[in-house]
Amino acid sequence: MAVAIIRILNNSLTMKFIIGDVLIIIFILFITRLPQSFSTTEAIQPSLTRLDSKRSSPSVQESAAKAVLGRFLPTHLHSFHFKIVSKDVCGGQGCFLIENYDGPTENGPEILIKGTTAVEIASGLHWYIKYFCGAHVSWDKTGGVQLASVPKPGSLPLVKDSGVLIQRPVPWNYYQNVVTSSYSYVWWDWERWEKEIDWMALQGINLPLAFSGQEAIWQKVFMGFNISMEDLNDFFGGPAFLAWARMGNLHTWGGPLSKNWLKQQLVLQKKILSRMLELGMTPVLPSFSGNVPAALKTIFPTANITRLGDWNTVDSDPRWCCTYLLNPSDPLFVEIGEAFIKMQIKEYGDVTDIYNW
Ligand SMILES: *[C@@H]1O[C@H](CO)[C@@H](O)[C@H](O)[C@H]1NC(C)=O
Ligand SMILES: *[C@@H]1O[C@H](CO)[C@@H](O)[C@H](O)[C@H]1NC(C)=O
Asked: 174-356 architecture in CATH?
């Protein structure tokens, strides 16, 4: 049996878990003042405010939402009007509002969708065609986009009275798995990515993982630490094994990555990020986990670098197994980690505060 007691003491939250006869007391100290009840949104408010300040302008986001509509339901491009509104409309939260368009509607807009970001507008559009028009929007393998039930322009169903207001219940909707990046997405071109990002926007995803092109960033960073391209060819995994190599499960297998491939992935990543930002999303970028090329040990002989054991690699062959991990308490870890974040900012701009590794 487990019992949890939560008590608020000034700035600290005390939780007592009694599991059998084990008593664990966890004190979590918060820099910011806690309200009466523990509020996650409150704790991340400074991050939310900072990220909001990086958001694309309302006109960029309105155009981006309109472009989603143009690709997804081009026959109704003029049936909807989109408008970015301030979070004040929903008490500081993200939200969308669906209203009847007030004004002359001959061949013009019938429905007005307001949202705090382009993602909110797109998810409001999805809400409208789902609940008012009986349409279905899914991935291709689970039914695809089914829009036959959407009435022709000029006959769209009206919403009642003051309309529909849907407030986002949590600030972030995260999407994507770190391994899918290499098993599936690595084969995608821009056209396929564009379709997926449109789908994300329609589903209300506002915190997508953006893992493409990271080897191109690593190449620039490690070269700054005197690691040669030859050393990197003995480090990066091939396209289908990126996730394995990124996590230090193997190296080299399926590689090397060609110069062209690295360049093309970086170009693709910049396109992906631009679109995510136009839609008001917060991309999640990679960061440093301590996984380093073998040559780093030679260049920095005093660094605390541990060689890992074999973990399910090809024939346990050292050509592919047993990678190297830099200890996180080593000053070199901070140097490399910082250089990586800075190189991303140089290439992509200061677009996020949220990282995954
Ligand atoms: C990299 O090599 C250059 C030239 O040999 C040297 O001046 C520099 O100190 C080296 N940097 C590191 C981080 O070892
Ligand atoms: C070096 O790293 C290993 C493994 O991460 C750790 O156990 C050890 O304490 C570190 N040594 C020093 C001197 O920091």
From this structure: Alpha-Beta Barrel (3.20)
